[in-house]
Amino acid sequence: MIKKLFFFIFAIFFPFTLVKAENSPVKAAEFKPGEMIIEHITDAHEWHILSIGNTHISIPLPIILWHEGKLHIFCYSKFHHGQSDYGGFRYMTDGAYKNKIIYVGNNSLGNENKSPTIPLDFSITKNVASLFLSVIALIIIFLTVARAYKRNEKHAPKGLQSLLEPIIIFVRDDIAKSSLGEKHYERFTPYLLTVFFFIFFNNLLGIVPFFPGGANVTGNITVTMMLALFTFLITNLSGNRHYWQDIFNTPGIPWWLKIPIPILPLIEFLGLFTKPFVLMVRLFANMTAGHIIVLGFMSLIFVFGNINPAFGYGISLISILMSIFISLLEILVSFLQAFVFTLLSALYFGMATEEIENSNHK
Amino acid sequence: MELITPEVGLIFWMTLSFGILVFILGKFAWPTILKALRNREKNIEEALQLAEKARQEMNQLMATNERLLNEAKQERDALLADARKLADIILEEARQRAHTEYDHILALARQAIKNEENAALINLKNQIGALSIEVAEKLLREKLSGEEKQNEYLQRLINEITLS
Predict the structure, then answer these.
(1) Strands A101-103 and A120-121
(2) Of A153, A186, A226, the CB nearest to B18
(3) Could you tell me the CA-to-CA distances from A84 to A19, A22, A81, A125, B126 in Å, in that order?
C-alpha cells in the first residue's frame, strides 16, 4: 500500500523532479520570523524540501496561465525566483502583487509605467499539488478498503480496513445518523464521509513538516471556502418546503416581525450564508493558527540564536518540546476540526431535510 | 492579505479534485463499504440472537437433564428401599420357616426317641420276664428235685386249695 502511494507521488512529480539547487545571493540575511511563518503557511509555486546552509532544494511546480485567450504552461524554475521574466510574465517578489504573476509584455524589465495585467493563474501550486496527492491517496486508500470489504465481507476487518472502520462507523452513526435521522442519513453519508476523511487526511498531512506533507491545504481559505460551498449547495439543494418556510415565513413568531419590514426572514436569509462562512473560517483559522504556533516556537530558536548562539541552543530545547506538544495538540485538532466540519454539515443537512411532524413540538 | 484572499486557480483545482473525490468515492467506495458494514452488523446481530437462543436451549436441556437425573435418582432410591424391604421380608420369612421346620424336626425326633425308648423298655421287660421264668424254672427244678420235696409241695398245694 505505502509502496504504491510512493509510486504515485513519484509518478506525479517525475516531470518536475528537476530538483534545483542554488545559492541564495544574500548571505546571512536577517531572520524575519513573521515573513518566514507567512511564507510557510501560504501557497507557493515550488515545493521546498530541504535547505543545507544556503543551498535550497525544492521542486519547481508547473505554471499554468490563462492570458488573453491563450494558455501558457511552463515551469516555475524559468523565473529564477523572480529574477527573470519568461514569455512576458513576471513573478513579483515584492510590492502590491507580491507572489503573483503579472503580465508585463515583451518589454524587458525596464518598463514599469505600463499598468500590469494579471493573468488567470491556474498553476499547480504547492497546495494544488498537495491536494492532488491527498485526493489520489484517498481514492487509493478507500478503493483498497472497499475491495477488502467486498472480498471478505463475512470476516473481521484486517489492516487498513480495521484502522478506518471505527472512524467510518463513527461518522456514520454519531454524525450522520444522529443529526439526520434514520430516514435521510443514507443519502448524505457518502458526502459526509468524504468530507471528513478529506479534511482529516489533509490536516494530518499539513502537520507533517517534510515533503509529502508541509502544504497548508486545509489552512487555506480557498480550500475551506470550496468545502463550505459544497456543503452550502447540498444543504440548499436538498432543502424541502418546510425548510424554506422556516426561513421566509417562520411559524410561531409575531407577525410584525415579518410585515411590513421582514426583519426575521432577513436574518434567517443571512443565516443561510453565515453558516457556511463560519465553517470556512473555523477550519481555516484553526489549522493556520496551529501551524503559526509551531512555526513561532521554531522561530524563537533563530530569534534568540541571532542574539547569541548559546542562547539559541538553550531555547531550542524548550522550543522543540513546545512544538512537539503543539503538534500533538494539532493531531487532536485535526480530528476535532474534521469532526466539527462534518457534524455541522450533517446538522445543516438535517435542518434542510427535517420533516414537519418532527419539528412541531419544538 | 494573501492569506485570506481566495485564489481562482485553487478554486478551480479544488472544485475539480474534490468533485472527482466525492464522485469516485461516492460511486465505488462508500456504497460497497457501507453495504458490507450493514451486512456484517446484520450478521453479527443474527449470530448473537442465535447464540442467545442456543444458550437458552442449552439451559433448558440442562434443566431437563437435571430433572431426569433427579427422577432417576429418586427411582433408584425407591427401588433400593423396596429391595431392602423385600429382602427383609424374605429373610424374616425364611427365619420363620426355619424355625417351624426346626420345631417340627425337633418334635419328630422327640417322638422317635420316645418310640425307641418304649420299644427298648418293652424289649427289656420281655427279656426280664423270660429271664425270671428261666430263673424260676431253674429254682423249681432245684427245689423239686427229690420225691419227698415234690410230695410236700403237692401236699401244701392241696392244703392251700382246701383251706381256701
Answers:
(1) unpaired
(2) A226
(3) 19, 15, 8, 19, 181
Section A195-220 average pLDDT:
88
Average pLDDT, chain A: 82
Mean pLDDT over A297-312 rounds to 85
Q: Give yes or no for A198 touching B (CB within 8 A).
A: yes
Task: Count how many domains chain B has.
Answer: 1
- Residues A90 and A229 occupy one common structural domain: no
Q: Which residue has the higher pLDDT, A248 or B50?
A: B50
Verify whether the Cβ–Cβ distance A142 to B2 is below 8 Å: no
Residues A76 and A171 in one domain: no
d(CA A340, CA A175): 9
Q: Structural domain of residue B151, as residue ranges?
A: 10-163
Of the candidates A303, A220, A201, the one whose C-alpha atom is nearest the C-alpha of residue A40 is A220
Q: Is residue A295 part of a domain?
A: yes
Share of chain A above pLDDT 70, in %: 87
- Using a CB–CB cutoff of 8 Å, tell me whether B44 touches chain A: no
Q: Say if pTM beats, i.e. exceeds, 0.90.
A: no
The answer to whether position B1 is within a domain reads no
Q: Same domain for A239 and A331?
A: yes
Residue that has been written with the C-alpha cell 484486517 in this structure: A158
Closest CA to A196 of A213, A173, A215: A173
Range name among A66-75, A246-255, B43-52 with the lowest pLDDT average: A246-255
Q: Are residues A68 and A209 in the same domain?
A: no
Q: Determine the Cα–Cα distance for residues B3 and A43; give it in Å rounded to an integer.
A: 9
Cell matching residue A138:
484517498
The total number of structural domains that make up chain A: 2
Crossing angle for the helix pair B30-143 and A178-207, to the nearest 10 degrees: 110
Whether A193 and A172 map to the same domain: the answer is yes
- Give the closest-approach CA distance of B6 to chain A in angstroms: 5
The vertex-A339 CA angle with A139 and A191, nearest 5°, equals 45
**Confidence at residue A113, expressed as pLDDT on a 0 to 100 scale:** 52
What would the mean pLDDT of B113-130 be, rounded to a whole number?
Answer: 93
Residue pointed to by grid coordinates 427279656: B127
How confident is the model at residue A158, as a pLDDT? 82
Q: Provide ipTM, 2 decimals.
A: 0.82
Asked if the Cβ–Cβ distance from B29 to A146 is below 8 Å, we say yes
pLDDT for res A7:
52
A215 and A319 fall within a common domain: yes
* Nearest by Cα to A222 from A101, A91, A128, A349: A128
Structural domain span for residue A97 = 64-123
| Angstrom distance (rounded) from CA B8 to CA A351 | 31
